[in-house]
Write a structure and sequence with these properties.
alpha+beta; 2 domains; 14% strand; rod-shaped
Length: 390
């Protein structure tokens, strides 16, 4: 009885530690005085069907315990190795089930509020570790599956020996289970982080398209208000661009030649608004036109040049665009005219540049975006190491 009492206290202390860790992991504050439970180990949950994947994990751990026992026997003796391995396998079958019950059913049910029922569960678990293991050994002996290499003068000595062996399995299963849960928790955390970043990236992309459409429709509205004959052509070009955005930019990557085409179409659409006074220069030097980049990554800088530069310039408006990609190093420079007063007010990033900067943070680890307001000139420079894609 004293032996049972000591191990019962040991398991109660272990459960108290586990409960404290579960409270820290499974709850997080959602408001003052409120707590949101993430995992609820209720009786309703315990009534759910057993998790076959979880039990399979315990079977693999049980196999590892058998291998550990065989290696231990090899270090002591090489005689009758097969029978000793069979002994380990017979004991491991029972202990696998008992440890599965302990970690997956007994420990989650323990509660200080249900002290007596918890104490009864722990006593039952100790009984399974000691007398149950003793009975299982003798069942194996009766079936000639288990070969007794050790004899005992008293039953209590054999029960104590089986209890010690069970405690070894408890420690082994507990350590492996803790490592396994830690790895799964890290994987789940990493997956949540990736999903969160992907959701934010999709949100930023969903903002880019309406922002682009809004600005382009403003341009077409200006042409229509002036009753320009170029309005129908503008609408046609816009429809082609929207078709491209709808069907070609849904994936994670597009070829750089497709990005160049959308930039060229946008420039052609913008030119329709202005007379010959607007000077647009667009040149590029790319070693491989099939290189993949995230879709619509460069268009915000081009759009910014017209929306917040050329449209506000009264004389000699210009846009100078240069793109180079060499050895996975992208350099994109956009220069545009501004009014003299803009230089005095300093640089203020709009929603397009802010969204682009955040997209770069989510997509690449090695990049740099700088904007510089000079005298009647605004320069945006984007450099990206395409190989640093997250």
């Amino acid at each position: 009885m004293s032996f049972l009492h000591k191990n019962t206290i040991l398991l109660l202390v272990l459960k108290a530690t586990v409960n404290k860790q579960q409270v820290m992991v499974n709850k997080q504050p959602v408001g003052e005085g409120k707590v949101l439970p993430i995992f609820n180990l209720s009786n309703h949950q315990m009534k759910q069907p057993p998790n076959t994947k979880r039990f399979t994990f315990y079977l693999w751990v049980g196999l590892g315990f058998i291998v550990l026992g065989v290696l231990s026997d090899l270090s002591e003796s090489h005689d009758e190795l097969f029978r000793r391995a069979l002994n380990n396998a017979w004991a491991a079958v029972y202990l696998t089930v008992v440890n599965y019950l302990l970690f997956e059913y007994t420990l989650p049910r323990l509660s200080w509020k249900r002290f007596f029922s918890s104490l009864l569960l722990l006593a039952l678990q100790v009984f399974l570790y000691s007398w149950g293991s003793y009975a299982w050994r003798h069942i194996g002996i009766g079936l000639t599956v288990y070969t007794p290499y050790k004899t005992y003068r008293f039953i209590s000595h054999e029960v104590a020996d089986r209890m010690g062996y069970s405690i070894e399995s408890f420690i082994f299963f507990g350590i492996i289970r803790h490592i396994y849960n830690h790895i799964r928790l890290r994987q789940a955390t990493q997956q949540l982080r990736i999903e969160k970043q992907q959701a934010e990236l999709n949100y930023l992309k969903s903002q880019t398209n309406p922002h682009f459409l809004f600005n382009t429709l403003n341009n077409i509205y200006s042409l229509a208000r002036d009753k320009s004959d170029l309005a129908p052509e503008s609408i046609l070009r816009l429809s082609k661009m929207l078709r491209f955005m709808l069907y070609e930019t849904g994936g994670d990557y597009i070829a750089i030649e497709q990005e160049l085409k959308i930039i060229s179409d946008y420039l052609a659409l913008e030119k329709l608004r202005y007379d010959d006074s607007l000077l647009v220069t667009f040149n590029y030097d790319i070693e491989d036109m099939k290189q993949a980049i995230p879709p619509l990554l460069l268009i915000p800088l081009v759009e910014n040049a017209f929306k917040h530069g050329v449209s506000e310039t009264r004389s000699r408006p210009f846009v100078d665009i240069h793109l180079t990609i060499n050895k996975r190093q992208l350099v994109f420079v956009v220069k545009n005219s501004t009014e003299e007063l803009a230089a005095e007010s300093g640089v203020k990033e709009n929603i397009g540049l802010s969204n682009l900067r955040r997209q770069l943070e989510l997509l690449f680890t090695d990049y740099n975006l700088t904007v510089q307001q000079g005298e009647a000139r605004f320069t945006a420079t984007l450099t990206i190491n395409l190989a640093s894609h997250v």
